[in-house]
Design a protein that fits this description.
This protein is of the alpha+beta class. It has helices at 11-21, 42-52; strands at 2-4, 25-28, 32-35, 57-59, 66-68, 74-78, 81-84. Helix 1 runs antiparallel to helix 2 (42-52).
């Protein structure tokens, strides 16, 4: 699963998201967050959207999907979760 943001989020917001998702968190930057989970908790998503004051786009990613972070690091979905490619 991934979350995408239209506007950059701050380091403070990134910390809040990391804390909420704990061990499920794989990577996060200003625009994208990657998780090894396929469960969507509506309360968590609502809390995040309210904290960062912008809509949160949640994407259920398929096997072999690739996401590129803002620093150029790429991750791919495998049967065991997101794996760093670079």
């Amino acid at each position: 699963m991934s979350m995408n943001f239209k506007e950059d989020i701050t380091e403070e917001h990134q910390s809040i998201i990391k804390e909420m998702f704990g061990d499920e968190m794989v990577a996060i930057d200003e625009r994208t967050a990657l998780f090894n989970s396929r469960l969507i908790n509506q309360q968590k998503m609502k809390k995040i959207a309210n904290k960062i004051q912008q809509p949160v786009e949640v994407e259920l990613n398929d096997l072999e999907d690739i996401k590129t972070m803002t620093d150029g690091t790429r991750y791919q979905v495998t049967p065991t979760g997101w794996v760093k490619l670079d």
